[in-house]
Amino acid sequence: MEAVTDSPAVWASHLRKRYRKRVAVDGVSFTVARGEVLGLLGPNGAGKTSVIKMMLGLVRPDAGEVMLLGRPNTDPRSRERVGYLPELFRYQPWLTADEVLALHVRLAGVTVSDRERRDGLGLVGLADRASDRVGGFSKGMQQRLGLAVALVARPELVVLDEPTSALDPLGRADVRDLLLSLKQRRVAVLLNSHLIGEVERVCDRVLILDRGRVAASGTLAELLGRRSLRLRLTSVNDEARSVLGSFEREDDLYTVDMPDDVPALVADLVEHGVRVHAVEPARATLEERLLDILRTHPEEHR
Amino acid sequence: MTVLTIATLTLREASRRRVLRSLAVLTVLLLTLSAWGFSRIDAEFGGLTSGEAKVAGSTVLNLVMFGYSLIAALGTAFLAGPSLAGEVESGIALAMMTRPIRRWTVLLGKWLGLVAFGSGFVAVAGVAQFLIVYLTVGYWPPHPVTGLLLLAGQTAALLTLGLLFATAISPMASGIVAVGLFGATWIAGVVGSVGEALGNPSVAQIGVVSRMLLPTDGLWRGAMNAFQDPALLAQIGTGVEESPFLSMAPLTPAYLTWAAIWTLLVLGLAALGFQRRDL
Ligand SMILES: Nc1ncnc2c1ncn2[C@@H]1O[C@H](COP(=O)(O)OP(=O)(O)O)[C@@H](O)[C@H]1O
Ligand SMILES: [Mg+2]
């Protein structure tokens, strides 16, 4: 039976998992569309890794269902076109880098030429270490190898659990380029990263987990929606303040909700004797938004 | 297909880890030692013609073969642990198990690889030993192939148990527990044969029960029986039954069947345990 190709890359419904008494994941549902890049965010222990492991059939959920690329994840074939870089990345230390890739190609049941495999190692900067034993690799090199492993079997869904945790700045830039090229090739990506800047740059949508639950989710535009206007002003008197309405102030930097007519607001301020030094549109960064969500979400469900 | 891939991988692991080198060193040591021992026996008795010399020769051969079976058992049990539990603990299993494969095929592949490794070792070391005995005292065991097969079976039984433990506990612990049980049943077997010799059925029962619970000792006794001179029993009669390195009777088909069922059962349990395990 052929899998339906217009089914989402991931469909997860009401996942639940408890370890002894601790509830790690508590009713998480989400989808990743084909070719979409979903960012998975949340503080340590929020349940991100647990969600990923349940999704990939590594951990048995207490409840919930998952479909991968149109097949239930209880069917091993659902993982035929899935690549995974675990948070805990280790590869057979007695094999060479190239042998690790060859092993994964064989297990995935695809045919990938030697050349393609070597190109994959080149992509993560390990071209000259292809025939070295993995046992002698540094942590960062093993994470690079893990990226190559995740990408080697021509995946349609790539799951990356903190892919840059051990990488140098150059490696992080490489990963960003890799993500952008995956996005261009319409490979679906589930990215769990603490580098929010990266997430903001590459992700179409974001899912924020907190204490095992979905705290927020949506496209970047939806999450960061409240656009605002930042003005640098001096000589602000009371009348001018009433013109501004509700605002946040930091020295001479005033932030207000984006008005319908920016020139009118500026003209109004000037009329009240305010000196206007700068006017720029601003948007809350994902980081601010994330902190906002996590902090206004206090002890309610412990 | 996956099974074969994993079996080859396991063999490659065994050949590249330090286990193989330690095994080789131990084996060469034992071979040299036994070559010296047999040449002493030859000098002492002037060949294996007298009944006494045959008892001595058979006992020493079985003693040395016990050494190999111990090496094989220890080696594979300590390979089985790291190979499964170690991969889960270190995280190697994570990326591998997300490939489109079923967990039991991985377990079966590992088992096959380990069995091949253990059997290969038993065959090489055993044949080398037989040659040494033949060259020093001119003795060739009556059923070498049967004996080696039984030794391989013993190794397989123990490493299967090691795999079962590895699905539940840490890699080192699984090896230690498996080898500990192996030693315990061997001792229980010796105790049992002492009970037989003394005509004490309740003590003899200990050996019988332990051989049912873990068939390593039973298989080992069958192997001993295949290595020793069949004329031995007739010549010396009873009275040597309490020796842990002589065996009076070949194995019954029923026991062999039980040993095979036992191994498959334990393997099935291991597969079940691995299937249910969170990685
Ligand atoms: N194997 C495990 N045994 C016990 N508790 C676990 C295990 N794995 C995760 N947990 C618990 O589940 C919660 C979520 O963990 P995890 O999914 O790793 O979080 P994250 O990846 O978001 O940091 C944590 O409280 C953690 O302690
Ligand atoms: Mg995590």
TrEMBL record, chain B:
**Membrane-crossing residues?**
19-39, 59-80, 111-135, 147-169, 176-195, 255-274
Domain of life here?
Answer: Bacteria
| Gene Ontology cellular component list | plasma membrane
**Entry-linked Pfam families:** ABC2_membrane_2
Task: Mention one GO molecular function.
Answer: ABC-type transporter activity
**Signal peptide feature range:** none
Q: Which UniProt keywords apply?
A: Membrane, Transmembrane, Transmembrane helix
UniProt xrefs under PANTHER family = ABC TRANSPORTER PERMEASE, SLL1107 PROTEIN
Query: What is the protein name stated in its UniProt record?
Result: ABC-type transport system involved in multi-copper enzyme maturation permease subunit
Give the species this sequence originates from: Actinoplanes campanulatus
